[in-house]
Amino acid sequence: MKSVRVVVWLDFVCPWCRIATNRIGEAARNLAGEIEVVVDIRSYRMAKGVPAEGFTMALIRRLGNAAAADRLMAAVKETGSREGLDFRFDKMRFGDTTDAHAMVKSIDSFEKRQQLIGIIFHACTAEGKDIFDRRVLSALAIGQGLALHEFSFDARHLASVARDEHDAKLLAAGLPLFVFNDKIVLSGAQEVSVFEKAMRESAILPHAHLEPES
Q: Which residues cross the membrane (predicted)?
């Protein structure tokens, strides 16, 4: 079977990142039996050094006016709703996600890292949980079944986060960002059909199963 490794850069406070990763998953399921897809998620902080605040206010500040912010949030909510995703902008917050990314990086198991990324996304966007609070992040990890010794917020993991960000900046601007088998680069929440096309065009016949990079 052909294989493709999809490297994805994202941030937990990026609504389009959640939509796009949902679509990547759908594309992979649609091609099951034809292509083996390995999704390798990397870190990128949209608001490094920015104190957490309400998402709506942060968006107004970035776009310059409330009307533009309302239009963007309405578009995200409508798109998400069609795909079974809930965005609670009234509860969501925006800011520096260093702790969340560091915690994910600290987990040795690839599968557990992937699961926790999904849990943090849901907690942030659908439940409005404060993912900038280490106590909240710890509770999410423990709720997933991780023991206290299996994760940390140690600063040594920040080198890996910074390396991810450096690699992304060499490729393109904007989030989410995708690279398919080091051949095709896409950015933004593309349609499922676009992701499927990229998977097919970049797929290879491997000598062994593709593995995510550590």
A: none
- In 3D, which of 187, 160, 190 has the Cα closest to residue 172? 187
C-beta separation of 60 from 89 below 8 A: no
Under 8 Å CB-to-CB from 38, ≥6 apart: which residues?
Answer: 3, 4, 5, 6, 209, 210, 211, 212
Type of residue at 192: V
d(Cα 119, Cα 36) in Å, to the nearest integer? 24
Tens digit of each residue's pLDDT (9 = 90 or more) over 127-168: 999 999 999 999 999 999 999 999 999 988 999 999 999 999
Scanning the chain, the segments in alpha helix (DSSP H) are 15-30, 55-63, 66-82, 98-106, 110-125, 134-143, 158-171, 192-202
Q: What is the mean pLDDT of residues 91-101?
A: 97
pLDDT at residue 66 above 60?
A: yes
3-state helix vs strand vs coil in the chain, percent to 5? 50, 15, 35
> Measured at the alpha carbon of residue 200, what is the angle toward residues 109 and 178, in degrees to the nearest 5?
50
For 1-30, the pLDDT digits (tens) are 899 999 999 999 999 999 999 999 999 999
Question: Tokens 């594309």 label which residue?
Answer: 27
